[in-house]
Batch of 3 targets.
Target 1
Amino acid sequence: MRAALLLALALGAVSAAPVVAETVTASPSVAADTLPANVLVAETASGPHRFTIEIADDPVERSRGLMYREAMDQDAGMLFIFADESERAFWMKNTILPLDIIYADANGTVVSIAKDTTPFSTASIPSDGPTQYVLEVNAGVADEIGLEPGDRLIHRRIAR
């Protein structure tokens, strides 16, 4: 192959000008309806990050959340789904694991992130604006994947 290229260059059939590859910085958007019900994707500047999640979409499930859990896989989490957008606040009562609490609006856009929350704390951890979805993951995960306000959460139950 190299010999053929050198011959083509010598004959003038191929330009010797350097070829500059296009830089693709944006990852392709994930279609929510193609994801299994227990999968959520966080789209960040570093690319898409996949999580296996549990859903908390009724008052009893949301009230219990991740309380009493002693361990959770690094790529796991819980998605809290509310009927509407509103200011939200969570606490860590009876929650053993330190968590990152990710607040997202009705479109799945990350509004704010409470990082490395304190286990067992009853202090209120508010969102920085109206939210409809809250994703809880292990503490440190948001920084690990480079998640920032303005990034997107993609799941089949998050409206677009």
Note: The helical segments are 2-11, 59-64, 141-145.
Target 2
Amino acid sequence: MDVYLFFVDTELFQMIHPIFQDFLAFLKNPIKSESYTKMSAKSFFVLLVVALALVIPFSVLLKWLGVDQFDSIMEEMLAENKWLVVIAAIFMAPLLEEQIFRLHLDLKITSIWWGLGMSILLISQQWYVSALFIIYLVFLLVKVFRDRPPNLKFVIYTSSIFFALIHLGNFSNFELADHFYWIPVLVAAQFFIGLILSYIRLKHGIWFSVWFHGAYNAILIIPSVYFYEP
């Protein structure tokens, strides 16, 4: 009990708690802000801590479960040009993926059209996931055109699922027919990150989700590049 009271009284807990509570409330009942607010450094830091607190232990769990049986294309890319990996992960991927998977969350016709056009870039990765995602965006477009937009919660969770599934392309020897039962484990972390990015996108705007995505990738990729040994 004393340990719990000590934790509650800490400055870190007092800083994290309201932001985390707001995020959980968003997951239960997502709402798009009428006008985007500037994301504070505190909120940015807290959500990064929340994301990393889940992903890093989860990565250890994946290794324990034997997921290292799947070859990571990251290893192959690091061997070829590790600085290209840095540029792609920190700058290119966030810019492209946020426009593809999060821009349309405001359910504006122009945003959906833009995401639909950008989604063509996904075809070379997981073509079946990309095809389903394009169908999903067309569905959204039709619904919005008819002035019958779908439930925002459905849109957020569906886009996060697609964001997670497209990362199956990170494994060069993953075969859907043979390894389908691994899918929830392999992409769970990306699904959760997709929800955090959706929260940021609808509360603070697309550029803050791009910057957060880049910062998150940087924290994960830079140590890998620095300590990489072929």
Note: Confidence is low (pLDDT under 50) at residues 1-9.
Target 3
Amino acid sequence: MNNTYRSKTESNPIVSTGEEMPARQDATRSEEKRYTDTPAVRAKIYEQIIRENICYDDLLISHAEDRELIDGITDLILETVVGTRDEILIASSRYPAEVVRSRFLKLNYSHIEYVLHCLRQNTTKVKNIRKYLLATLFNAPSTMDGYYQAEVNHDMPQYALAR
């Protein structure tokens, strides 16, 4: 009998029909996915990605006095990214969670510095700091450049672009 084509009822497994191999590979991939898809592992992976994106260690060096705040911002970004909701409320508007996750995963060192600066400059009472931070983080990529341009225009009008 040819060893390559043994029947499934025989005691020895099929050696190389090519039919069993993909199923074994799929099973292995499934086990790997199950391991990496646990919430704890997923959170750890995203935490590393977020810390790299925002240059966490450099932020701590540059803003040593804000360590707890930086940790809180990092945790808020992580919590938002790994959350399971379909929509996220930011500044009284509901956004698809994937849009918010994508935007938060694009935040970098400059965005976090901008958020820290906004917090330092704010003199009004913030009733819900979590909501304020979510809105500031979400809007940072689209408002940061305009904010700094307005600051330069105010402080050094000679550098303001003539329109």
Note: Strands lie at 87-90, 93-96.
